[in-house]
Amino acid sequence: MTNETIQTILNRRSIRRFDTRQVEEEKLQQILKAGLYAPSAGGRQGVLFAVCQDREVNERLGRIKRANSHPRMATEHCYVSREQPSIADDPEIKNAFYGAPSVITLFAPKGFLFAVDDCAVAAENMMLAAASLGIGSCYIGQGWTAFADPYGQEILKTWGIRTDYYAVMQLLLGYQKEGDRHPSPKPCKAGRVLRF
C-alpha cells in the first residue's frame, strides 16, 4: 500500500492548459503555507512569494517572458510535452504563463549561493500541495525574463520587491482546462538508481 503523500507525488503532472476559474483563497493559503515551510539553506527563509491573480498583469508579464525566452524549439524526438506543449515545443504559444489564473513569482537574494535551490524546494512543496487539492501547477524557470522591460520593472516597484532580490522562477496555479485529460505518466527510465 502507498500512503497519500507518495500517491500525490506519483500522480502529479505539469499542467499547461488552464481553465479561467480562479484558485479559491483557502486553497491558495494552504499551497503558500506548504511553500513557506519548505527547507531552506541554513534556515534563512529568504524566498519571497509574490502572488498575482490579476489576469491583465499575468497576461502581459507572460507575453514579456515569452518574448524574452528563446528556448530551442522541439524536434520530432526531443520535446518537453506532446500532450501539453511548452513554449519550447510550440512557437505559436504567446504567453509563457499559459493563461494560468494565479502566478506566484519566487524571488531570492541576489548572489546567495543557494537561492535557486531554496526556490526549487519551495516550488516542489507547493506543486505537491496543489496536486493534493485538485489544482494544476507548472514550474517555469528563468523568472527574471518576465520583468526584462519597462513594464516589468514598474511591476517590481509596484509590488515593492527589494532591489537586492531577483525573480528566480514562476509557479503557475489553476484548474486544468475543462475536458482535458490529466497528462499521462512517462515511463520511469531504468538504470537511474545506483546502489553500492
UniProtKB/TrEMBL annotation:
Similarity comment: Belongs to the nitroreductase family.
Origin organism lineage: Bacteria, Bacillati, Bacillota, Clostridia, Lachnospirales
Keyword Transmembrane helix attached: no
One Gene Ontology term of the molecular function aspect: oxidoreductase activity
Highest rank taxon of the organism: Bacteria
Keywords of the record: Flavoprotein, FMN, Oxidoreductase
Keyword Oxidoreductase set for record: yes
Domain called Nitroreductase: residue spans: 9-175
Pfam family, one: Nitroreductase
Name of the featured protein: Nitroreductase family protein
Record-linked InterPro entries: Nitroreductase (IPR029479), Nitroreductase-like (IPR000415)
